[in-house]
Amino acid sequence: MSWEDFYRRRDTIAAVLHAAERAPDGPLPFTEVGAGQVFRDERELLLALHYHWMQLMTGRLRAELGRPDDGDASGEGGDDLSGDPSDGVSRAWRRAADEHPTLRAVLDANLERYPDVGTAALEREQRVLAVAAGLAEPDESPAEAARVGAAFLALTRHGAAHGAARSERSKGQVLRMLARSA
């Protein structure tokens, strides 16, 4: 991919998200923004949108969890280095969703419309969340890590939708029990 292609894809994604602000839970505004000039079809665009989301979310994860190898030699880069990482992962996911509500809504609406693309993309996200939260191991079966990540994501979304009624600590305890029961 050339730099020109990169910039065209980036600009098209921005145009899609801008157009989707009117109805983020609707179909992708593929023809409306001329995305066919850059992407083969809606599925390829959806994959690019999910890739964009994963970049934003994993950036939030790194900032929230503050891994020592991220440039802070003292190891004091984040709040959760000695605590429960699931709390930091939940905060990171919610921050990314709060900062990019149109992108998240477009993905939520369209990943289900295109299950051939959406299922694999969502499972990747769920695996990343499960491993980052310490609920799955990197070498664990992808299906099992995705299952645990799906439960984690459901709890994270439920807490965001209900004002985080449960404390972050109690949610972490529920997740640890869930992971042990697998």
In short:
The chain is mainly α. It has helices spanning 3-20, 42-65, 85-99, 101-113, 115-132, 142-161, 168-181. The longest helix has 24 residues, at 42-65.
General description of the model:
The chain has 182 residues and is mainly alpha-helical. It contains 7 helices and no strands. The protein has helices at residues 3-20, 42-65, 85-99, 101-113, 115-132, 142-161, 168-181. Helix 4 (101-113) packs across helix 5 (115-132).
Question: In terms of structural class, how would the helical and strand content be classed?
Answer: mainly alpha
Helix percentage range: 55-70%
Rg over alpha carbons: 17 Å
Q: What does the overall shape look like?
A: globular
Mean pLDDT equals 86
Could you tell me the number of beta strands? 0
Which strand-content bin applies to the residues? under 5%
Q: What sequence of helices (H) and strands (E) makes up the elements?
A: HHHHHHH
So how many helices?
A: 7
Write the layout of secondary structure elements.
Blueprint: H1 3-20, H2 42-65, H3 85-99, H4 101-113, H5 115-132, H6 142-161, H7 168-181
Keywords summarizing the entry:
mainly alpha, 182 residues, 7 helices
